[in-house]
């Protein structure tokens, strides 16, 4: 369905701009994507983007905004103690990714990061500084930076294998199936003895 | 340095075409990249691409050719038995990726796969059917498809964390440091009891 002819006031205008922005930033990165191109793709006047979002930077933030605050997730995950923490991380990861149609902002962020250095830096910061490093620090077993990097490698790999490469049976497995498979890996990276 | 002005017969011509092809296929995928655009980027006449490679399909194969036959790697890895297999996979992975300047074809393949469905299918086939499934079958513990998918998730994630997101200390760790950290994960996915 072509979004052309969409008018200001259409209830889907904002969402059409966000979808076009995700596609643009995924394919061409932040610098390579113009507001004009996003407006054309969304079938709206460029002035509407400014109206809804204010600036290109604010549009980028909105398009790639996660459905929850990753920083807020850390205390929730740690609240129940270290037992089963890896299991809970797998379930939280799947709840967020599977709960978002098309994995919208997360997949857009991953795609943009893999092809553009500026987006890679952004995702690295979010993954490590905001999410995984505080988690590793909260687990209190030392080596937080290394543990966060190891966690990042398995979590990013799960995203790539399940949502990008769609490798079966990983791609269509349920959280109940995946948690006992991947949970022990995350548990060891967070709390185990590292060589 | 601009490659413009390169002439037939220059020793670097073939390499310049391969580099431009990797960049093109990474950024725009197989279908979105024309031989004309690759020739322009490489600073050569399009006829030279046909001269050196024959066809677009053959150029794609050459640009993304791995520095070794992944199928040949499987019996080598299995030859020493199941003990330490995970450790040896990590070392083989790093030897291949670190031994290739800029991780050329592997990183191009990963980038192309993350942004284009046709390339994702190609990488999925290579990773699972050619490399990881035979490895899991060779390990002989059953559930080869599931074990291959789990291996894929950790191996793809290591590539993303180390070479794309460049998360420290993973990005600059040596094989001797990484093998004991990641080896046990791969070992469990290959030979461990799965829930």
Description:
Two copies of one chain form a homodimer. Chain A has 195 residues and is an all-alpha fold. Chain A has ten helices and no strands. The first copy, chain A, has helices at residues 13-28, 35-42, 46-53, 56-63, 70-79, 85-98, 104-115, 117-139, 144-164, 175-191. In chain A, α1 crosses α2. Residues 1-6 of chain A have low confidence and may be disordered. Chain A binds chain B through residues 26-27, 110-111, 113-115, 120, 123-124, 127-128, 145-146, 148-150, 152-158, 160-162, 164-171, 180-182, 184-185, 188, 194-195, and chain B through 26-27, 110-111, 113-115, 120, 123-124, 127-128, 145-146, 148-150, 152-158, 160-162, 164-171, 180-182, 184-185, 188, 194-195.
Task: Give a brief rundown of this model.
2 copies of one chain form a homodimer. The first copy, chain A, is an all-alpha fold. Helices cover 70% and strands 0% of the residues of chain A.
Oligomer: homodimer
CATH architecture of the largest domain in chain A: Orthogonal Bundle
Number of helices of chain A: 10
Q: What name does CATH use for the topology of the largest domain in chain A?
A: Tetracycline Repressor, domain 2
Biggest sheet overview of chain A: none
The gyration radius over C-alpha positions of chain A equals 19 Å
How is the secondary structure organized here?
The structure is a homodimer of 195-residue chains.
Chain A: H1 13-28, H2 35-42, H3 46-53, H4 56-63, H5 70-79, H6 85-98, H7 104-115, H8 117-139, H9 144-164, H10 175-191
């Amino acid at each position: 369905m072509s979004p052309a002819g969409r008018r200001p006031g259409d209830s889907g205008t904002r969402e059409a701009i966000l979808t076009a922005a995700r596609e643009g930033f995924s394919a061409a990165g932040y610098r390579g994507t113009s507001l004009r191109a996003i407006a054309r793709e969304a079938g709206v006047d460029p002035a509407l983007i400014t109206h809804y979002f204010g600036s290109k930077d604010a549009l980028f933030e909105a398009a790639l905004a996660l459905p929850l605050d990753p920083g807020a997730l850390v205390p929730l995950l740690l609240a129940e103690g270290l037992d089963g923490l890896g299991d809970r991380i797998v379930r939280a990861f799947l709840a967020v990714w599977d709960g978002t149609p098309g994995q919208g902002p997360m997949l857009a962020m991953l795609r943009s990061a893999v092809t553009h250095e500026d987006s890679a830096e952004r995702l690295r910061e979010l993954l490590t500084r905001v999410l995984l490093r505080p988690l590793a620090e909260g687990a209190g077993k030392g080596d937080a930076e290394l543990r966060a990097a190891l966690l990042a490698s398995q979590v990013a790999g799960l995203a790539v294998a399940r949502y990008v490469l769609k490798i079966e049976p990983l791609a269509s497995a349920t959280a109940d199936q995946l948690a006992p498979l991947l949970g022990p890996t995350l548990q060891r990276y967070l709390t185990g003895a590292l060589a």
